[in-house]
Specification:
The complex is a heterodimer of chains A (about 140) and B (about 475). Chain A is α+β, with helices and mostly antiparallel strands. Chain A contains two helices and ten strands; from the N terminus they run βββαββαβββββ. In chain A, the strands form three sheets. Chain A has a five-stranded antiparallel β-sheet, with helices on one face. Chain A has a three-stranded antiparallel β-sheet with strand order 5-7-6. Chain A is globular, with a radius of gyration of 14 Å. Chain B has a single domain, classed as Alpha-Beta Complex (tRNA-splicing ligase RtcB). In chain B, about 30% of the residues lie in helices and about 25% in strands. By secondary structure, chain B is an alpha+beta fold. At the A-B interface, strand 2, helix 2 and strand 9 of A face strand 4, helix 6, helix 8, helix 11 and helix 13 of B.
Chain lengths: ~140, ~475
């Protein structure tokens, strides 16, 4: 299992017969989603000490949390396929009034990271969860690999 | 969902009785030893969920390579009655729309290339784009992309990437009718813009194979498959374009389902009536992605022919067949004595047309459709042929079927050790990443010999020839 663990926040990849499950946790909603993004990237690339070469702004307006998770991970895969960019880090902020999420991806060209596995084709809604748990937030997603 | 119970009907056919919201039973084609382990694989529960889809007829079917997916299990077939409110579900096709296989048959035998296989694999390794991100055989323009979405492999051939004979040996003549590029979002187009002619990663591969065993001499002769014959198998799909189309339309349907009062057991089963605004939009986009997938394999076949020309002279590499195993198609089938128009979803299942079927090209019609079954890396692949009796709307398996997670595989073998083991077995490997290689270790899959044997015993398709790899290109 690929794991980045700490007491308060982290991510872990868990087995699934043909695919991969990524779980993430953190004290806040946005920190949890940031961990989820890192966990998804870790399934296919070792970003290690790769420096971001640019920042890409992001904005997600989703009706429900499931759509938010899907849209965010779609952004990660879009940058990889369309622009050849791997997300090395992410910062998210949620508008408390309208619930929209803004932030930025720090990215680097795919040539600057070590490919460690197959990139996901997409994030499934089956088994997807993003919920508060014991004064923290926890996310879980099945990736089609 | 209540625990699922299988009742044996024959040694190779099991019935999942209707319970709860199931509209039809489930039918599993498998030898007892191939049935999924309920403790680690929830595919039977998923098969029961598929049986709840509006308009489903006969049964939700499972092939012998059934395994746990998301929403639909992998290795599933479901037909819905289009004219009675039957639904289409992007989850019943999967992210990799028109993922499929093509097999090229050379005029060479193993001894003809034995001394040059290393050089051939080096050239294939350089010419076949794979792995992370964009990069493709063809630097296609926006106009090219639009034409590919409409005309699939036909456009690729018209642009010089193949010969007309290829198209006769592609499912649907290389282009699925009904493509609607306008139903594809900008993101999907951008993801697919620079990937026409690329393998991707995961279980996708290009293998140089030789015929290891002939099981049906008459059909094998018609397919030009004799012992030692060199072939090339290409397994890939519609890349980021297809993946994004699946996601976009599944999201739309997630919300549109309320309009049609549809409730599903699993969100990845989101669906709408085929004959609805959203259903037609998905089917149009899916057909365009299928065309992209066929063009993708056509471009890779072209690159393969170039590599053969460069290294082993100018041999013929004739296309035996190109067939998808992730697709939903309108087909006519007799159900309960009535001829009906069905939307047949095959997710990890291969169409297997019987002998005499009008959709087959003249030189294959008497035999039946070649069913191409890629095995796990380093073991064997098979060519089967459709049978008259068939089953599951004339469908068969699509591969060996995974039993072990990628994580478990990584715990058991390192990529470099696996590569050395394959090389010792006479298989030249050109891999994009060592971890990706280890994730596809052969022991992660069911025994492909057992899977195809079960297909034959169950009457779904008949074995024609067994092929083994001598060279593997992987992402």
């Amino acid at each position: 299992m690929a794991t980045e663990l700490s007491a308060t926040s982290g991510h872990v990849a868990r087995p699934h017969t043909a695919d991969v499950i990524v779980e993430a946790w953190a004290p806040t909603r946005m920190a949890c989603l940031e961990e989820l993004v890192r966990g998804v990237v870790a399934t296919f690339a070792h970003v290690g000490s790769a420096q971001a070469t640019r920042e890409v702004p992001l904005e997600v307006n989703a009706q429900v949390d499931e759509d938010l998770v899907i849209a965010l991970l779609d952004d990660v895969l879009y940058l990889l396929d369309a622009d050849g960019l791997v997300v090395v880090d992410v910062e998210l902020e949620e508008d408390e009034v309208d619930g929209s999420v803004e932030g930025l991806f720090r990215v680097t060209p795919v040539e600057r990271v070590v490919a460690t596995g197959a990139p996901p084709k997409g994030a499934s809604r089956s088994g997807l969860s993003f919920l508060p748990e014991n004064a923290a937030w926890r996310a879980r997603v099945v990736l089609d690999v | 969902m209540a625990p699922v119970t299988l009742v044996p009907e024959t040694p190779y056919r099991w019935r999942l009785e209707r319970t709860g919201a199931m509209r039809v039973p489930g039918i599993v084609f498998a030898a007892g030893t191939l049935l999924p382990d309920a403790a680690s694989d929830r595919s039977l529960e998923q098969l029961a969920n598929v049986a709840t889809l509006p308009g489903i007829v006969e049964a939700s079917y499972a092939m012998p390579d059934l395994h746990w997916g998301y929403g639909f299990p992998i290795g599933a077939v479901a037909g819905t009655d289009v004219d009675s409110g039957g639904v289409v579900s992007p989850g019943g096709v999967g992210f990799d729309i028109s993922c499929g296989v093509r097999l090229l048959v050379s005029d060479l035998h193993r001894g003809d290339i034995a001394a040059r296989i290393g050089h051939l694999m080096d050239i294939l390794g350089r010419r076949i784009p794979r792995g992370l991100g964009p990069g493709a055989v063809w630097d296609a323009s926006a106009d090219d992309l639009r034409a590919v979405l409409r005309d699939g492999a036909r456009y690729a051939v018209a642009r010089g990437f193949g010969v007309d004979e290829d198209l006769a040996h592609c499912e649907d003549g290389g282009a699925l009718p009904g493509a609607d590029p306008a139903a594809i979002g900008a993101r999907a187009l951008a993801r697919g813009a620079h990937q026409i002619g690329s393998l991707g990663a995961g279980n996708h591969f290009l293998e140089v194979q030789v015929v290891d065993d002939v099981l049906d001499e008459r059909t094998a002769a018609a397919f030009r498959l004799d012992p030692g014959r060199v072939c090339v198998m290409i397994h890939c799909g519609s890349r980021g374009l297809g993946h994004q189309i699946c996601q976009d339309h599944a999201t739309l349907m997630q919300h549109a389902m309320r309009t049609y009062a549809i409730d599903v057991e699993d969100p990845q089963l989101a669906c709408v009536p085929c004959d609805s605004v959203e259903g037609r939009a998905y089917l149009g986009a899916m057909a365009a992605a299928a065309n992209y997938g066929r063009a993708n394999r056509q471009l890779l076949a072209h690159a393969t022919r170039e590599a053969f020309r460069e290294t082993v002279g100018s041999p013929s590499l004739r296309l035996l067949y190109d067939v998808s195993h992730n697709l939903a198609k309108f087909e006519r089938h007799v159900v309960d004595g009535r001829d009906r128009r069905l939307c047949v979803h095959r997710k990890g299942a291969t169409r297997a047309l019987p002998p005499g079927h009008a959709e087959l090209p003249g030189d294959l019609r008497a035999c039946g459709q070649p069913v191409l079954v890629p095995g796990s890396m380093g073991t064997a692949s098979y060519v089967l042929v459709g049978t008259t009796e068939g089953g599951a709307f004339h469908s068969a398996c699509h591969g060996a079927g995974r039993t072990m997670s990628r994580h478990a595989a990584l715990r058991l073998v390192r990529g470099d050790a696996l590569r050395a083991e394959l090389e010792r077995a006479g298989i030249a490997v050109r891999a994009g990443s060592m971890r990706g290689l280890a994730e596809e270790a052969p022991f992660s899959y069911k025994d492909v010999d057992m899977v195809v044997s079960t297909c034959e015993h169950a009457g779904l398709a008949r074995r024609v020839a067994r092929l083994v790899p001598i060279g593997v290109v992987k992402g």
